[in-house]
Write a structure and sequence with these properties.
The protein is of the alpha/beta class. The protein is built from 14 helices and 28 strands. It folds into 3 domains: 148 residues, Immunoglobulin-like (Sandwich); 369 residues, TIM Barrel; 166 residues, Immunoglobulin-like (Sandwich). Strand 6 and strand 7 form a beta hairpin.
């Protein structure tokens, strides 16, 4: 092995070559060779620079030094082992190569670094091993390797020696494009996946990484998704944790194959034009006695004080972010997944629990910080170090915070006092929106503000709109079953919800199976209910998401200015009586044709002859109608093209009249080349208009057609006369 190290300011090559390992770096007094295997026979595989950077928390390729690495030392083939156990009295490697006998292959302590290291000849890839650690109390602890690249499946927990990967990546074009792109100004429509239950074989067993890759790539590409987000694939013994109780931070779970099989999975998706995000869990770790817990007989990775080191709600331990080596373990782990597996971003789980010392605790169960507050200052420093390292070394990789509180500046630059994340999940939007859609449409006018409030803080952070796995488990019901009404109305509501999420500001995320309209909660032990696509109504939902995804990707107005105020403007936010919302999405370029009008009618009552303001004069075409018969809608008559007239409305100089289908969303796009000479910018001009006396446009006398879908009876003859939005100027109500 060639000693190597990186820092934020790269060292000169001479600083990381074997010549840098001087005899004084590892003195005879620092080495304690014992027992049958004499580790001192072989030169150390870690150098002074490696140990120095690690103890400072700044070794950015730590996985190349700690762990088990097949190599050749002094002309002999074998494996070099290195583990951090600062309070251990001695460390041995036990494995199938020595019949699990402790003391036979003892490692040497490298000075005061806390690292034990040694080369064992004859041990190669595939060997099973653990560490036997002697503690200061005189007992012995048997542990898996924190840096193991592969692990056994339960009930075993041995680490498995892995050779350096020789996988031949084919995604160079993807990585080059990623490095040059600004992810904030690119489309991001995320499909959240649990690999073990997305699809299974005929025997009910999960598919392998290699089997699932082409199927998943084709599926998400067809639906218009730009990324998949994987629930944690780091090794975890308990499947019911969905991966969030990690036992092997450096090991892709061997449930579905080898580390190279996982590389193949990522490679296939990249070649299909799909990014891969990974859920990552630096907030806590489980109390499994064979893993990180009291690793060397002391609180090594956690705090000794349970008020700091224990998570009472989850029954887990909290990392000690104030310890340099622990921070290094985590920062290097993030870089490991990005560099070794080409991951395009990390969604950092449970950030709120990291930021607050009193998170999930009662009075007396927590300790104030050195300033007397409840903020976890060490966790804040860790998150900034993490984001700084990722953004500096890997431009284009996204860091996403699952943060559910009002902590400020989560996505602000570190230089401006922020945490430095790229994006943050908008949990407030998710809860308010789902609360709104649960309400019977008859009462929705009383809940109108739940749907509109999120725009009041939309630009305080850069958000993702998540409808995630957490909302379809633990008796919360499937998304479809949260919707009121009969099956037709439930599906119509669901189509409107999905359309609203995608067309409003922010990136969007949906959990797998949303496209199937399942009435059942997600079960991690079973595959998705793919047979639902045999139902024409569910097939309609699937085709709607396919059309919506294509529309989203094709038109930059839905994503280019997601996080800029010029990318969104309410047309009418105040029509609570009819539960109608309308807004403009624009790409921020100022091009008169680079915008879209979105109108949502969130009751089962159709609204013919509904007038809204328009940001430009000319003709608009219907780009998407969630009530289209092919999507399972009622097929209420809607003009496919509509031309503005000179009636000022909603602060614009012109307006148009459309018919709104029941529980439906319409998306209108400017007809290319139809713009008149006088064009209004995407942000409305507030004009002084007369008080609106709504007149019935002669050309829009609506014929009330019977819905073709029998279940849409509530959408029938309630369109006796045209309804228009109030002429009130609401253009000033932008958040």
């Amino acid at each position: 092995m060639t000693p190597d190290a990186r820092d934020d300011a790269p060292l000169e090559p001479s600083a990381i070559t074997p010549s840098a390992i001087t005899p004084s770096a590892i003195t005879p007094s620092a080495i304690t060779p014992r027992a049958l295997h004499d580790a001192s026979r072989y030169r150390p595989t870690l150098g002074a620079v490696d140990l120095h950077l690690f103890n400072e928390g700044r070794h950015l390729r730590l996985w190349e030094k700690l762990g088990a690495h097949p190599c050749r030392v002094d002309g002999e083939h074998g494996t070099a082992f290195a583990v951090w156990a600062p309070n251990a009295t001695d460390v041995s490697v036990i494995g199938d190569f020595n019949d699990w006998r402790g003391g036979e292959h003892r490692l040497r302590r490298l000075g005061g670094s806390g690292v034990f290291e040694g080369f064992i000849p004859g041990v190669g890839p595939g060997a099973l091993y653990k560490y036997e650690i002697g503690t200061r109390r005189g007992d012995v602890r048997v542990k898996t390797d924190p840096f193991a690249a592969k692990m056994e499946q339960a009930p075993g927990f041995a680490s498995i020696v892995q050779a350096r990967s020789d996988y031949s990546w084919q995604d160079g074009a993807w990585l080059a494009q990623r490095a040059d792109a600004d992810p904030l100004r690119e489309p991001m429509l995320v499909y959240e996946v649990h690999l073990g239950s997305w699809m299974r074989d005929m025997d009910g067993q999960p598919l392998s990484y290699r089997d699932i890759a082409p199927r998943l790539a084709e599926h998400v590409r067809r639906l218009g998704f730009t990324h998949v987000e994987l629930l944690p694939v780091q090794e975890h013994p308990f499947g019911g944790s969905w991966g969030y109780q990690v036992g092997g931070y450096y090991a892709p779970t061997s449930r579905y194959g080898s580390p190279d099989d996982f590389r193949y999975f990522v490679d296939v998706l990249h070649q299909a034009g799909i990014g891969v995000l990974l859920d990552w869990v630096p907030a806590h770790f489980p109390r499994d006695d064979w893993a990180l817990r009291r690793f060397d007989g002391t609180a090594c990775y956690e705090h000794e004080d349970p008020r700091l080191g224990d998570h009472p709600e989850w029954g887990t331990h909290i990392f000690n972010y104030g310890r340099h080596e622990v921070r290094n373990f985590l920062v290097a782990n993030a870089l490991y997944w990005i560099e070794m597996f080409h991951i395009d971003g990390l969604r950092v789980d449970a950030v709120a629990s990291m930021l607050y010392l009193d998170y999930g605790r009662e009075a007396g169960q927590w300790v104030r910080n050195r300033l007397g507050g409840r903020e976890n200052l060490e966790a804040v420093a860790f998150l900034r170090q993490l984001n700084q390292a990722v953004h500096t070394l890997h431009p284009g990789v996204v860091m996403i915070a699952e943060e559910s509180t009002a902590w400020p500046h989560v996505t602000a630059p570190i230089a401006e006092g922020g945490l430095g994340f790229t994006l943050k999940w908008n949990m407030g939007w998710m809860h308010d929106t789902l609360d709104y859609f649960r309400v019977d449409p008859f009462f929705r006018k009383g809940a109108h503000d739940k749907l509109t409030f999120a725009m009041m803080y939309e630009y305080s952070e850069r958000f993702v709109n998540p409808l995630s796995h957490d909302e379809v488990v633990h008796l919360k019901k499937a998304l479809l079953e949260k919707m009121p009404g009969d099956v037709w109305q439930k599906l119509a509501n669901l189509r409107a919800l999905i359309g609203y999420s995608v067309t409003r500001p922010g990136k969007s995320l949906f959990f797998m199976g949303t496209e199937l309209g399942s009435p059942h909660e997600w079960n991690h032990d079973r595959a998705l209910e793919w047979s639902l696509l045999e139902d024409p109504r569910r097939r309609g939902l699937f085709e709607y998401m396919e059309a919506l995804g294509a529309l989203y990707r094709q038109h930059a107005c839905f994503w280019r200015a997601d996080h800029e105020p010029q990318g969104f403007r309410w047309i009418d936010v105040a029509d609570r009586e009819q539960s109608v919302l309308s807004y403009v999405r624009a790409d921020g370029s100022g091009d008169a044709e680079s915008h879209a009008l979105v109108i949502l009618n969130l009751t089962p009552v159709p609204r013919p002859g509904y007038r809204i303001g328009a940001p430009k004069a000319g003709t608009y075409r219907l780009a998407l109608n969630s009530d289209d018969a092919r999507f399972g809608g009622s097929a209420f008559p809607v003009d496919t093209r509509v031309t503005t007239d000179n009636e000022p409305w909603h602060g614009y100089l012109q307006s148009l009249v459309v018919s709104l289908p029941p529980l439906g969303m319409l998306v209108l796009l400017p007809e290319p080349g139809s713009t008149s000479a006088a064009v209004v910018d995407s942000a409305p001009q507030v004009t002084k208009t007369r008080k609106s006396k709504v007149t019935k446009p002669a050309e829009t006398k609506a014929k009330t057609a019977k819905p073709k879908t029998a279940k849409a009876q509530t959408a029938k003859a309630q369109a006796a006369k045209p309804r228009k939005s109030r002429g009130t100027d609401t253009s000033g109500e932008q958040a």
